[in-house]
Amino acid sequence: KYSATKSSSHYTCPTKANMSTKAKLHIANSKAEVAPLLHAQVISCVQKCSDESKFVIALSGGSLPAFLSANALIQSFADAGVNPQWNKWYVFLADERCVKNDHPDSNYCSIQQHMLTAELPIPADQVFPIDDALLDDTTPGTCTTENIAKDYEDKLKSVLGDNGKFDCILCGFGPDGHTCSLFPDHDLLKVTDKMVASITDSPKPPPERVTLTFPVLNAAKTVIFCGAGGSKALILDAVFAEASLIDDGSYDVVMADPAPYPCGMVQMECGDLCWVVDKDAVTGVEVLEKS
User: Fold this and answer.
1) Strand, helix or coil at 9?
2) For the residues of the chain, what is the DSSP string, one character each?
3) Helix, strand, or coil here: 171?
4) pTM
5) What is the average pLDDT across 152-169?
6) Tens digit of each residue's pLDDT (9 = 90 or more) over 1-24
7) DSSP 3-state assignment of 40?
8) Beta-carbon count within 10 A of 11 CB
9) CA–CA dist 215, 4 (Å, integer)
10) CA distances (Å), 180 to each of 127, 138, 235, in order?
11) b/e for 29-43, b at 16 or more Cβ within 10 A?
């Protein structure tokens, strides 16, 4: 099984047996105010890694890249007085559709359009799309999607090592509760021996994709879920079991166990779990109304 290590020695965490997963919840007054809240969490992750030689981050597609526009992100770092050290960033995809990298369905294409513009000086060789040339492999008996997943796992290992940990993973979540390309009731939810897995029957088109697996998500230093809109409310109502309002206006939440949807199944080994949403996304969420 995949397991994370710290440096060269095994990174041992306190046991989580019979312990509920806890998270921090930040709520923006509107969708327009989600981006600054999200940026603040990313900035916090960067600060935690200020003495490291790398800052390794994974990004989902969907609506998430729109919250990470280059100019706004640069301004957020400036306003916080934090040096982003872009030259240390290594950017991976949390999941990707198996299409060409310039295809409108490509998560990389969306991230490139919003975030990875000329204004953001992350070295090009530290940004990792899938190898879309593998889509052209017509060798009989080969599975293109599996090959892409294996190649992408090799890329991860070249930066993180065999058992490395992401510094930050940014995830969206759908109205069906999926995250990355981990869909409800799918066999991929049970994968424990791969960092990157392939899927050929995604219930959401396109059907062929690659995705980070739960062991990688669970081992990360920080996982941040981000979403906006009323279509998220039923999911959040189901995945939050308890909530306590704290002084800064955020909430300490306890995740439902067992988790009803994949986005609620992340169980951090030692890292931090965070949710950033707007008010519409939590309208009618029972545990928040009670807190």
Assistant:
1) strand
2) ----EETTEE------TT---EEEEEEESSGGGHHHHHHHHHHHHHHHTTTSS-EEEEE--TTGGGGG-HHHHHHHHHHHT----GGGEEEEESEEESS-TTSTT-HHHHHHHHTSSTTS---GGGB----GGGGG---TT--HHHHHHHHHHHHHHHHH-TT---SEEEE---TTS-BTTB-TT-GGGG--S-SEEEES--SSSSS-EEEE-HHHHHHSSEEEEEE-SGGGHHHHHHHEEEEEE-TTS-EEEEE-SS-SSGGG----SSSEEEEEEEGGGGTT-HHHHH-
3) strand
4) 0.93
5) 94
6) 555 543 322 333 433 444 679 999
7) helix
8) 14
9) 8
10) 18, 27, 15
11) eebeebbebbbebbb
- Taking the C-alpha atoms of residue 169 and residue 182, their distance in angstroms, rounded to an integer, is 14
HSE-up (13 A, CA, CB side) for residue 119: 11
Length of the chain: 291
Q: CA-to-CA distance for 207 and 215, rounded, in angstroms?
A: 23
Q: What are the residues facing 172 on neighbouring strands?
A: none
Question: Which residues are CB-contacts of 118 (< 8 A; sequence separation ≥ 6)?
Answer: none
Query: Strand 5-6 relative to strand 55-59: parallel, antiparallel, unpaired?
Result: unpaired
Question: Where does the pLDDT of residue 167 fall: very low under 50, low under 70, confident under 90, or very high at 90 and above?
Answer: very high
